[in-house]
């Protein structure tokens, strides 16, 4: 079958442009195989990264039909099945089309090759290796039980392909955010029983919006991860550890989570009148925070959007029971997730 590949070409300092190549391909061919054929048979100047061709090294990560993926993992048939209707509508029912572009959140060196220096720098910033401070006794072995080792399996699957970093909305708006890849590796260190820097690490990862509180919980990192590492879930686990150790006065980010859960537990959903006062105004302890809410409050009153009263949910008791049940399960150590970091309830 014939397929046209629309590839975004670019060199440093120049505007990107799409170039189209037509190939006779087998539907089972991977996108990487198709790129190889384009380079070998049609255009030797096309630049992209590759290595293992078997979803191990992570080198061939790029944006395929608008989302970051491994070119060696995705094939023509699946791409056309997922996106054929949309591409046909766009190109006037001509040949089926697959678009390929470089990863996001990183500057382009050439074509599909990006500069990953910030990716590696942010990984290094979280100290993603077990502390050697306790290894001063040379004859000691650092053994783990199967259960302790199993806690590291999911994050250990990360191949550092950059897909999650490429799609991270938080990174796009906050260049200081370290990224989901780094925080997923960070949780591996928190979970590793051989490491003796847990408290120091949690303080480091708790730092402002550069750390775990910078995550906007958009789920993109989870959706594009080719190895099912689920970076956002690992970030949530770090938040859980921090919330267990901190009270609401520690920071606005921590207060936000604790107030959210307390209000939901009280009324089944969020009382918007109290939420801002308790989080931003710190329950009238932060005069500057309260004053910062005044312009918004005035606009809401003027436009008649300020809620005059709060009506509790009909299922408040059920919500309260669910929260208590999850916390009880967490306390028993059966799960790692924490209800304090679930998305806000609908209807608040």
Automatic annotation (TrEMBL):
Q: Does the keyword Metal-binding apply?
A: yes
Pathway it belongs to? Carbohydrate metabolism; tricarboxylic acid cycle
For this UniProt record, the keywords arranged alphabetically read as follows: 2Fe-2S, 3Fe-4S, 4Fe-4S, Iron, Iron-sulfur, Metal-binding, Oxidoreductase, Tricarboxylic acid cycle
What Pfam families does this protein map onto?
A: Fer2_3, Fer4_8
Q: Which InterPro entries match?
A: 2Fe-2S_ferredoxin-like_sf, 2Fe-2S_ferredoxin-type, 4Fe4S_Fe-S-bd, 4Fe4S_Fe_S_CS, Beta-grasp_dom_sf, Helical_ferredxn, SDH/FRD_Iron-Sulfur, Succ_DH/fum_Rdtase_Fe-S
UniProt similarity note: Belongs to the succinate dehydrogenase/fumarate reductase iron-sulfur protein family.
Report the protein name in the record: Fumarate reductase iron-sulfur subunit
């Amino acid at each position: 079958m014939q397929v046209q590949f629309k590839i975004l070409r670019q060199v440093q300092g120049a505007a990107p442009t799409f170039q189209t190549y037509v190939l006779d391909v087998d539907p089972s061919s991977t996108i990487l195989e198709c790129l190889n054929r384009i380079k070998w048979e049609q255009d030797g100047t096309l630049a992209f990264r590759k290595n293992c061709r078997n979803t191990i090294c992570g080198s061939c990560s790029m944006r395929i039909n608008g989302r970051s993926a491994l070119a060696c993992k995705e094939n023509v048939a699946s791409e056309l099945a997922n996106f054929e209707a949309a591409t046909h509508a766009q190109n006037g029912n001509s040949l089926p089309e697959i678009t390929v572009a470089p990863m996001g959140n990183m500057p382009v060196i050439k074509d599909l090759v990006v500069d990953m220096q910030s990716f590696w720098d942010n990984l290094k910033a979280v100290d993603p290796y077990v502390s050697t401070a306790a290894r001063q006794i040379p004859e000691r072995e650092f053994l783990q039980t199967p259960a302790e080792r199993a806690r590291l399996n999911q994050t250990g699957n990360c191949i550092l392909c950059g897909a999650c970093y490429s799609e991270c909305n938080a990174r796009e708006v906050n260049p200081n955010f370290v990224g989901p890849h780094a925080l997923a590796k960070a949780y591996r260190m928190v979970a590793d029983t051989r490491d003796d820097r847990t408290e120091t690490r949690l303080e480091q990862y708790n730092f402002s919006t550069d750390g775990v509180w910078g995550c906007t919980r958009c789920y993109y990192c989870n959706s594009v991860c080719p190895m099912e590492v689920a970076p956002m879930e690992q970030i949530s686990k770090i938040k859980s550890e921090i919330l267990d150790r901190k009270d609401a006065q520690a920071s606005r980010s921590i207060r936000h989570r604790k107030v959210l859960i307390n209000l939901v537990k009280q009324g089944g959903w969020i009382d918007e009148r109290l939420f801002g006062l308790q989080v931003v105004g710190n329950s009238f302890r932060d005069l500057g925070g309260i004053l910062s809410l005044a312009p918004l409050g005035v606009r809401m009153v003027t436009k008649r959007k300020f809620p005059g009263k709060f009506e509790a949910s009909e299922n408040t008791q059920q919500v309260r029971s669910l929260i208590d049940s999850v916390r009880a399960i967490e306390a028993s150590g059966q799960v790692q997730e924490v209800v304090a970091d679930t998305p806000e309830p609908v209807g608040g």
